[in-house]
Amino acid sequence: MAAQAPTEALKELHVSDTAKAAGASGKPAPGGKDDDHSDDSEDEAEENGAAGGGEGAAKKKKKRKPRKKKKKAPTSQTEPPTVMISQLFPNKTYPKGEEVEYKDENRARVTNEEKRHLDNLNSEFLADYREAAEVHRQVRQYVQKSVKPGQSLTEIAETVENGVRALTGHSGLTEGDSLVAGMGFPCGLSLNHCAAHYTPNAGNKMVLKQEDVMKVDFGVHVNGRIVDSAFTMAFDDKYNNLLEAVKAATNAGVREAGIDARVGEIGGVIQETMESYEIELDGTTYPIKSIRNLTGHNILPYSIHGTKAVPIVKSNDQTKMEEGDVFAIETFGSTGNGYVRDDMETSHYAKRGDASKVDLRLSSAKSLLNVINKNFGTLPFCRRYLDRLGQEKYLLGLNSLVQSGIVEDYPPLCDKKGSYTAQFEHTILIRPTVKEVISRGDDY
Q1: What's the catalysed reaction (predicted)?
Q2: Would the N or C end of the chain have less CB density within 10 A of its end CB?
Q3: List of residues 6+ apart from 324 with CB closer than 8 A
Q4: Mean pLDDT of 347-371
């Protein structure tokens, strides 16, 4: 999200009519699955009891209850994705991201016993992040295969969000459930000159077209540990250079990131990589520009935008990345001005973590704040999420919360009309021993 500045089931027993008849005469049914020595001896005992006139004659043979079939544990994902990741990895041994060893003066960290011990202490932290990352990978890979022009943006957004909720096992419909795991922030589907923060509100009729360039940006969290990753989809090969430029720039930023790396210098490498590309569209050649007022950012628990930014143009920012930091390295390229402004209808919101206590006059604002606190906390949400929880006529209260500084709104960010923008993004963990690109997959 962009920042501004196995066992086989046993078969049931089936008793044939002839077997029933045989049972009535006191003879064992031939050829049945239970036709073994123990059954023979039981039948003989009953025959003897009947012949002797003892109390065994009064006893009826107990009917065997059919054994319940054991369900096999799922071993693969469905399409669309519905199987919880924790079922596919029952021991919580989730796949690692791409681990990159530190270089130069930090190389000794790879084998340092103290640093290795610190890494081992983070097992729960890593399990949560890796589960969230695997959810992201499986959902986005399904989206890349299935989404086609002609689908509505609402349908696409719900495909992403329903997949995330299914794979984390948290639908978010009961109070507090979405705070345990689920969407880290709403699914952004920003088209063409719109670079970020666009998701359809209720009633939106927009449909994906063949000539569109769509940024798909969504987050997954487990226990507040958010994986933020994005990619761009285009259905016409003429946009290939734009997508390649931004993907290369993101990978350059990921490569340069690490302990003690200065964010201003990373921005310079990103810009140099991005702006080495150009693109020809309809006979006109355009330079591909880094969008200078969009940045990457660090991620804190339950807070998608932390206190550090990673510019995507060269700057004098001497802020260093540090051990234990989590960063979203995201880059945006544009054929336009390389500068975005607020535009279009707002859909994204988040409660401010540093909001001061305000005496709210509107009862609708008070009740809505209670809903936000119990269901989202400081996690970003959108208007569709409030609709989903059954909230009605909440816009007045929501606007009051924004004006009071309790909730921050995130309007869509757009370059000039007629231009095209693209985005790629990865989340990286600055671990004590290695840098882990937690969201890396075979796709990007």
Answers
A1: Release of N-terminal amino acids, preferentially methionine, from peptides and arylamides
A2: C
A3: 430, 432
A4: 96
- Determine if residue 275 is labeled as part of a ligand binding site: no
Architecture of domain 85-101+122-343+419-437: Alpha-Beta Complex (3.90)
The three-state (H, E, C) secondary structure of the chain, written as one string: CCEECCCCCCCCCCCCHHHHHHHHCCCCCCCCCCCCHHHHHHHHHHHHHHHHCCHHHCCCCCCCCCCCCCCCCCCCCCCCCCCCHHHHCCCCCCCCCEEEECCHHHHHHHCCHHHHHHHHHCHHHHHHHHHHHHHHHHHHHHHHHHCCCCCEHHHHHHHHHHHHHHHHCCCCCCCCHHHHEEEEEEEEEEECCEEECCCCCCCCCCECCCCCEEEEEEEEEECCEEEEEEEEEECCHHHHHHHHHHHHHHHHHHHHCCCCCEHHHHHHHHHHHHCCCEEEECCEEEECEECCCEEEEECECCECCCCCEEECCCCCCCCECCCCCEEEEEEEEECCCCCCEECCCCCEEEECCCCCCCCCCCHHHHHHHHHHHHHCCCCCEEHHHHHHCCCCCCHHHHHHHHHCCCEEEECCEECCCCCCEEEEEEEEEECCCEEEECCCCCCC
Task: State yes or no: 228 annotated in a binding site.
Answer: yes
- Topology of 347-410 in CATH? Arc Repressor Mutant, subunit A (1.10.10)
* Ramachandran category for residue 10: left, alpha or beta (phi over 0 → left; psi -120 to 50 → alpha): beta
Q: Where are the domains of the chain?
A: 85-101+122-343+419-437, 347-410
Q: How many CB atoms lie within 10 A of CB 95?
A: 14
Q: Is 297 among the annotated ligand-binding positions? A: yes
- Report whether 35 belongs to an annotated binding site: no
For the segment 419-442, what is each residue's pLDDT rounded down to a tens digit? 999 999 999 999 999 999 999 999
Q: Kindly list the catalytic residues.
A: 217, 228, 297, 305, 330, 425
